[in-house]
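step 4 of 6: structure.
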Amino acid sequence: MAGHSKWSKVKRFKGAIDAKRGKLFSRFSKEIMVAARMGGGDMDLNPRLRSAVLGARAQNMPNDTIDRAIKKGTGEIAGGIVEELIYEGYGPSGVALIVEAATDNKNRTAADIRRIFSKNNGHLAATGAVSYLFKRKGLGRR
Amino acid sequence: MVVDEESYLVTTPHDQLYQVGEAIRQAGIPIELQKLSFIPENLVPVQDSSLADQVLRLCDELEENEDVQSVHGNFDIAEETLAKLAH
């Protein structure tokens, strides 16, 4: 837990406000698309979608952008199929990292992430290499 | 639950995330962020400030990537080291 809150403190120190603003909407759009693809477009029946939409609204994402993302997820509008992937790797000093991605092009994403790790003195590892070092938990922040 | 100056961070078993979220919202408390996350079992301290800098740059660059939704790590960087990096 300490590492987690220290990491968010670093963001404040460096003056970067949580999830770089420009990416915020695209991140929410992807989460909405994934949730809708997996569990349908009905917020009442899809808790993950409901949570994603509430989060997007809390960040003032426009309703029509939200609706478009839901429709892309269910396939009602063509938008490319967004898949969730998890990458695992090592950083400098033996730290373990887990990267959650959502992409419509797995090959491009894998290549990009591999390159980022290598460029920064780390390396991408196989699935399962480090995930056992983490617990899967639900996280809520007010 | 962890409390810092600005927020409460609540963890739940991963299959109860949405029920707990709903309960908190029903109590009138707005939730800014709610997601499944990876919490490290143990933290790896990174004391050397240039290594710490490299770790943070790696995380930054990963987070900048178009397709990355989130990055989780098991590193622990002390306040003093963070302070050095900010200057």
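step 5 of 6: annotate
 - Chain A touches chain B through 62 residues (CB under 8 Å).
 - The longest helix of chain A spans residues 21-39.
step 6 of 6: archive
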